[in-house]
Amino acid sequence: MNTNLGRFGFLVVGFYAWVTAVFFGGILLDIMYSHLLYGVLSTFESTTVFSEVADILLLIGVITILAAIGAIAFSWSSRIARNLFIASLFILIFEFLTPVFFYQFVQNVKELNIGPWLRIIPSGLASILAFFGLHQYYR
Questions:
Q1: In this predicted model, what pLDDT tens digit does every residue of 21-76 receive, in sequence order?
Q2: For residue 62, with 0-12 CB atoms within 10 Å meaning exposed, 13-18 middle and 19 or more buried, which class applies?
Q3: Phi and psi angles of residue 15, each rounded to the nearest 5 degrees, phi first
Q4: In the chain, where are the structural domains located?
């Protein structure tokens, strides 16, 4: 029973590291395509396309947060891995809540053209921390 639970823990931790990488890649693709499609599509078409992409990214983000909770639960005995997963989860939550709480700041940052970096850096950092946690957990 204990070995089956340990194997499932390896699966959950590995899944979390994988899904954070997928989420990071999705954000990179979203930023790249939004810049490419900005002048090509009409306003209605671009709104439709971007809302569909946002829905997919939101779904992947929710799956990522649930996988983070599972990874934290299964890595509870490994202090270093657990702390890396907790830090990764907090960064992901920060990335989700930035537009909600700092909307005015994000609007001002759009003029400076550093808005994409406010999405790339947290999701990339969360992915890196998840892979470091995966390494510590397997160790």
A1: 999 999 998 888 777 776 666 666 666 767 777 788 889 989 999 999 999 999 98
A2: exposed
A3: -65, -40
A4: 2-138
